[in-house]
Amino acid sequence: MSESNAVMIVLTASGGLQDAYSYFVRGRVFANAQTGNLVLMAQHFFTGDVTGALHYLIPLTAFALGVLVAEQIRARIRSDGMIHWRQVIVLIQILMLLVVGFLPINDIVNVFANALTSMACAMQVQAFRKVNGYAYASTMCIGNLRSGMDALSAYLRTKDRKHLRRCRQYFLVILVFVLGAGVGGFLASRVGAGTAPTGRQIIWISCALLAVSFVLMLVREEEKIEKVTDQDELRAISDLKEKFKKNL
């Protein structure tokens, strides 16, 4: 259920919006693209601007911490309960991003807001790593682009349509990410980004998308349970019929 296109679409749209939000609203920091933060951090360090370097080091550290937290949750929560550990991750993300939307926009608070956003992104990318059996990232595009072009190259060589399906899957992920980022950037420009109080609340759209993913996974889990239950009932009826025939 966590690998379905429906869940991928809402998660990836949320991931794109989070990156646009942190960059356009919260002081030109990437929530997801940590390579960009590394480059900017290094540039500030080498020019002697330690304060500027910390501006990018903090979200980097928060991202790393998010991966660690997601793995600890996965290891400690059973996957056969009413709520899957990935759904717990989504709930934590929603709470973190809700807090971000309440925080005022200024240079000091933005550091904390970006740290929370980066941590939430890391938890998502660590928890949701496959769609329809293909490895992917819902919060960044470089790996998806590489995988998509690799699949396209394989299709051009072999004409095997399975490679074309894989290529389409990756470019669908990229398209959804672009749409999410585009919506985030457009809204930031319309409300004045950091100059308007409503700019900080754009992140709540991600909360809504994450809530949709939570419900989708819950519904699919219930359908799966019902399907298994129906199969068990049919098997039990079949066993009773066999026993009745033997008794006759």
| DSSP, total strands | 2
**Would you list the SSEs in sequence order as H and E?**
HHHHHEEHHH
Strands of the widest sheet, in order across it, are 1-2
N- to C-terminal separation? 45 Å
Radius of gyration: 22 Å
Computed structural class: mainly alpha
Helix content: over 70%
Largest sheet: 2 strands, antiparallel
What is the strand content?
under 5%
Mean pLDDT over all positions:
86
User: What is the tally of helical segments?
Assistant: 8
* Shape estimate: globular
Poorly predicted parts: 221-230
Q: Which terms would index this structure?
A:
mainly alpha; 2 strands; globular; two-stranded antiparallel ribbon; 8 helices; 248 residues
Q: How does this structure look, described?
A:
With about 250 residues, the chain is mainly alpha-helical. It has eight helices and two strands; from the N terminus they run αααααββααα. A two-stranded antiparallel ribbon has the order 1-2. A hairpin with a 2-residue loop joins strand 1 and strand 2 (about 135). The longest helix is centred in the C-terminal third of the chain and has 44 residues, at about 205-245. The model is unreliable at about 220-230 (pLDDT under 50).
Question: Care to give the gist of this entry?
Answer:
The protein contains eight helices and two strands.
Draw up the topology in text.
Elements lengths: L4 H20 L9 H13 L3 H27 L8 H18 L4 H21 L2 E2 L2 E2 L6 H17 L2 H31 L12 H44 L1
Antiparallel strand pairs: 1-2
Helix pairs in contact: 1-5, 1-7, 1-8, 2-3, 3-5, 4-5, 4-8, 6-7
